[in-house]
Design goal:
globular; 13 helices; mainly alpha
């Protein structure tokens, strides 16, 4: 707690210095006051951070010699129809190849006859693609109602981790001065699960995937060792974090499914069926975009050499994994 208090104290001191600078600029101070009012109103409407009573805006600011006018919190108009979210994945204009479901890195990263530097490149592509995991997790977090608090706490933590994994991939490419948007980052994983599987099925296959990554031969230990063998210190550092995260995620999934009476073996068996069924469901979407093997060109761009798998059939594996 002493260390926590030190950090909080530093944050408050920084905030006070920032506010002092704002006070020197009338326009900036007005914007800051308006934004504070906006936040305070919603915080009051939520009955504080933890639902507990708290000092009112006027009382708290009076002690500092500041007065903020009292306003009623804005009340949104009642919806005429229940809110129905759209779970079909969307990406901004930076992305391309959303419906090109050819993603050779899923095969290349553990191909025995491929050099470590090319397998490491495949791993970094796989990390970048992991933005599709939060796209899928958000849907079952929303749809699965009346779960215990631990469900939302644990899976929200995991969702953040998965988003961070995608960021690790993009950062690794930026460190190499490589434009990661050159990778066709498809939406196949979140598309097929969000639209063609139930919320519980999405949760089950997520655990089945995490459990498959625990294998020493092809899982997270192997991925870390691949980055080390490639001599890529940043990738090895990132995959060390990724490995630790995925061990935690496997425990999260096991605990959550155990509460619902679903065993490890049941989840793996169901996960395989869900994977195969939803993979087949992608077929109608393939007409939206050419299915192109982009890997040899990307290897040439980044590694300045020919791919070890050029000309090889790199069909997606029929096992549970992303």
């Amino acid at each position: 707690m002493r260390f926590a208090l030190l950090e909080v104290t530093e944050a408050i001191e920084w905030g006070d210095r920032a506010l002092a600078v704002l006070d020197q600029d009338g326009d900036a101070a007005a914007v800051a006051r308006a934004w504070k009012e906006h936040l305070e109103l919603y915080l009051d409407a939520a009955r504080g951070i933890a639902g507990d009573s708290r000092i009112s805006v006027e009382e708290g600011d009076a002690r500092r010699g500041v007065h903020i006018r009292s306003m009623e919190p804005p009340v949104p108009p009642p919806a005429e129809t229940p809110f129905v979210p759209d779970f079909e994945p969307k990406r901004d204009k930076r992305f391309h190849g959303l419906y090109n479901f050819e993603f050779p890195p899923h095969v290349v990263y553990n191909a025995e006859d491929v050099p470590a530097d090319e397998r490491n490149l495949a791993l970094l592509c796989k990390r970048t693609l992991e933005m599709d995991v939060p796209e899928m997790m958000a849907s079952f977090l929303f749809e699965r109602k009346d779960q215990p608090w631990e469900f939302y706490l644990d899976y929200s933590r995991q969702l953040w981790d998965e988003a961070r994994h995608a960021m690790l991939g993009t950062v690794a490419f930026e460190a190499r001065d490589v434009d990661w948007t050159a990778i066709p980052l498809n939406v196949g994983f979140s598309l097929r699960l969000n639209l063609h599987a139930t919320a519980q099925e999405r949760q089950i296959i997520l655990y089945a995937i995490e459990q498959s990554l625990m294998s020493g031969d092809t899982g997270k230990r192997f991925e870390y060792e691949t980055a080390v063998a490639a001599g890529d210190e940043l990738s090895a550092h990132f995959h060390d974090y990724d490995w630790a995260d995925e061990v935690l995620h496997a425990h999260i999934g096991r605990r959550a499914l155990k509460r619902e009476g679903i065993s490890r073996d049941d989840a793996i068996r169901q996960g395989q069926e869900i994977h195969e069924r939803t993979w087949a469901a992608l077929e109608p979407y393939k007409s939206r975009e050419p299915q192109v093997n982009w890997w040899p060109d990307f290897v040439r761009l980044v590694l300045r050499k020919e791919s070890a798998v050029a000309g090889r059939d790199l069909a997606a594996p029929k096992i549970v994994g992303e």
